[in-house]
Design goal:
The protein is α+β, with helices and mostly antiparallel strands and 70 residues long. 37% of the residues lie in helices and 10% in strands. The chain contains three helices and three strands, in the order βββααα. Strands 1-2-3 form a three-stranded antiparallel beta sheet. The protein is globular.
């Protein structure tokens, strides 16, 4: 199964999965006047780094997530 969802948080952080812990600060790029091509490249790289599947059942992720139970 592969994940096809990304999340842009209310504070402008991009996550490459709904359950991801790593984020990219897109708001900072926008506020600093980054070129559209630079922003697109950051988004593409973030999506390319996405996990295979959700991996939501991984014990180390589940224990930090707060949304998950095993």
């Amino acid at each position: 199964m592969s994940c096809n969802r990304i999340r842009l948080t209310t504070d402008g952080k991009l996550r490459n999965c709904l359950f991801a812990l790593d984020e990219v600060d897109v708001k900072r790029l926008l506020r600093d006047g980054a070129a559209d091509a630079q922003i697109a490249d950051v988004i593409r790289r973030n999506v390319a780094d996405e996990w295979e599947g959700h991996e939501i059942t991984r014990r180390d992720l589940s224990s930090r997530c707060g949304l998950c139970t095993l």
